[in-house]
Amino acid sequence: MSPSPDETPPLFDISGLHYRYAGAQADALADLDLKVHEGEFVAVVGANGSGKSTLARLLGGLEKPAAARHALACGHDLLVEDGRMAARRDVGVLFQNPENQLVAQCVEDDVAFGLENLAWPAADIGRRVDEMLARFGLEDLRRREPHMLSGGQKQRTALAGVIAVPRRVLVLDEPTAMLDPVGRDEVLRAVREMRDEGLAIVYITQEMDEAAGADRVVALERGTQAYAGDAGGLFADAALVRRLGLGLPAAGELALALAEQGRGLRDLPLTMDELLVALGYAT
Amino acid sequence: MKATIAQYYAGDSLLHRLDPRAKLVAVSALAVALFVRDSFAGLAVYAAAAVLAYLLSGVPLVWFWRAFRPLLWLVALTFVAQVVFAPGEPFFSFGFIHLSWRGLELAAFLSLRLVVLVLVGSVLTLTTPSMALTDGLAWLGRPLRRLRVPTDELALMVTIALRFIPTLLVELDTIMRAQRARGADFRRGGLRERTRSLVPVLVPLFVLSFRRADELALAMEARCYRPGAVRTRLHPLRAGWADAALLVAAAIVIAAGLLV
Amino acid sequence: MSGLEAIAGAAPDKPGGPGAAGSAGMSLAGEAVSFSYEEARAPVPALCDVSFELRAGGSLALMGASGSGKSTLLQVVRGLDAPESGAVLLDGADPSDPRYTALQREVGLVFQAPERQLFASTARDDVAFGPRRLGWPDEQVTSAVATALDLVGLPPARFAERHPYALSGGEQRRLALAGVLAMRPRLLLLDEPFVSLDPGTRRQLVGILERLKAAGVTLLLATHDVDLAWALCDEILVLGEGRVAAAGPWDFSTAGGRLLAANRLREPFFVELWRRLGRDTHRAPRTAAQAAQALR
Hints:
The complex is a heterotrimer of chains A (283), B (260) and C (296).
Chain A: E1 12-19, E2 29-36, E3 41-46, H1 52-59, E4 70-73, E5 76-77, H2 81-90, E6 91-94, H3 107-117, H4 122-135, H5 151-164, E7 169-173, H6 181-196, E8 200-204, H7 208-212, E9 216-221, E10 224-229, H8 231-236, H9 238-243, H10 250-260, H11 272-278
Parallel strand pairs in A: 3-8, 3-9, 6-7, 7-8
Antiparallel strand pairs in A: 1-2, 1-4, 4-5, 9-10
Helix pairs in contact in A: 3-4, 3-5, 4-5, 5-6
Chain B: H1 14-17, H2 20-36, H3 40-57, H4 61-68, H5 72-85, E1 90-94, E2 97-100, H6 101-127, H7 130-140, H8 151-181, H9 191-197, H10 199-222, H11 241-259
Antiparallel strand pairs in B: 1-2
Chain C: H1 3-8, E1 28-35, E2 47-54, E3 59-63, H2 70-78, E4 85-90, H3 100-105, E5 107-110, H4 123-133, H5 138-151, H6 156-159, H7 169-181, E6 187-191, H8 199-214, E7 218-222, H9 226-232, E8 235-240, E9 243-249, H10 254-262, H11 269-276, H12 288-295
Parallel strand pairs in C: 3-7, 3-8, 5-6, 6-7
Antiparallel strand pairs in C: 1-2, 1-4, 8-9
């Protein structure tokens, strides 16, 4: 599906991408295709070690692809140094471990870090930081040291620092994996807000119920794309889901177990409500 | 965790609001004067200034005590060494120990000097966040850039190192606990055995630190950090009249101490 | 022959040797345990008057928001921190009992992200670390290592000589678990064992824990995954700011539900399903297979 000329070009336009870590035997990513358009919410799933984090690094212009037919991020060519540098401004990347992303000794300095690097004037940085702190509910913590923050607060600080630089697309690498349910909700709420504002998001996750809510799902298997399409299509292929080391949301697991015992449901439910409908208890 | 290095007490005193460069200059000058001047009268002037600074800082005494505690043995050692080995006519001898009034005087002087020095230094670190300290140092070190010393990058490195000290201490504690839960014993055995027993702690600590450094570098690059590029600051250093006043006051105190 | 051998199908152990404590799990009780950290610089949780019981061979889910004291309680139970007041009873013995130190060695603690503590240059050596520190004879160490590796699904023939850091994330997690299991714990404490794992590895880990349970090992599982806690544990202990908010059988009555919500926990999926289907929540299934059986 090539974009028609009047359509805006995709934010990520990747084709035939390869990447291999120094000294590794095999490609971490091989022949990967990915297109993400304005306002889209794309989930990336796959087992531990399937190449999801490597993909995040490449999309953010943080690693040099070994080869690609083409690799464009917000119009910048990821195959050349200048393109990667430019991509770093437009593509925000949030990593899994909030602890390893906080550079400064207090929250407000950390949120300011990206803008300081872009040499914004101090007054503009101040305004933007205040805006970010208010948006992520961090005003009362502005002078707090990172090691005195909860996991959710740390990750919100890191997210505020990523978003402080105006971005066109956001890549989130398992941003909730190391958080407790409270912290997870805090971060998910912030992500949902950004999505509602129309920011395109590539969301890497191990949580199948989070993936189920995406516009599109890409599943990786040892560095190659094993599936791309809507969430329902992925989960409907139970054999593929198992092979990829993934799972179904609980409602889907139950439907699968029912099918094994001879009571197949017509549609594959992915949420509690869909399950109740499928079981005939609600409409 | 017990990270007392450069511990900052969040406050809003006059001293907190001063420019770190002014504080660094004043404190360094005072420290030099402390070492140059060797009379009790001079020391008394500097001690009075240090106490005044403490009172102005609004930092609870217990915070000073925390900064002092690890240095107590140093003060004690200075005192004992001076008492025992100092010259002068002994009024008491036992074996190699000779106590003299001159020795006692010298011991008291040197210990007191150390205490005043630590007090002055603590006022600086307790009222100045380490980020501001490193910024101040980087600014004062600017002439070194002519010699191609990357002062700004060094300052950022120091800031990051300070930021990660508590993190690494927690990490170290966790790894030691985990290996203890598997039967490791770090307190028993001779030097060799003890060194060997550290392998299960140091290997993971190094591996994790490198991974941390790698991830941190990535996160910095993701936020557009480029070594050598021009950066601005959220809180640029700004000196004012109060800072000039501090420098004048410091000059007067130092002169007074040298002249009395 | 210990329970672990039985399930891993490895060579039987010599009876009476160290660690051959038999298949019975260890019982655990906390009696008004209180603990606080010396310097409250970091937001570290304390424990206040924590009392609970866990029968031998039972399984208890330890839940509560982060900072509620879950990890601290595990450290205290393992004896890495001594309670300021109160006591941890192991098999009914209190710390004044001469057997207590020996009993503590039969308590295994799997830390959060335990793969971070791997250090040896082969999987075999890493797993052997604990048993060697216990002073077991070589042949017993060898068999304990093989058993543990088999049990976590890393057959020694393929994995024993691998470098721990060359394994995948999921394999590293299981290797670290093997390092604790090789010491033949009769009580296993786990601190958030499912965090950062993909669903497939999570399923493998659940399978391993189910087999340990079946072998009679007592489980104390700190997790914030309420569905996995419900699938694995008979009872629940909820901590809130260092105090016991609830202890005992799962309670899904109105009051119980409120209590879960107050501690930022939700109902397990299958319990909510049963409630919405108008069925008795106390007979709610623990797994998808059980639920399907009941709904067929």
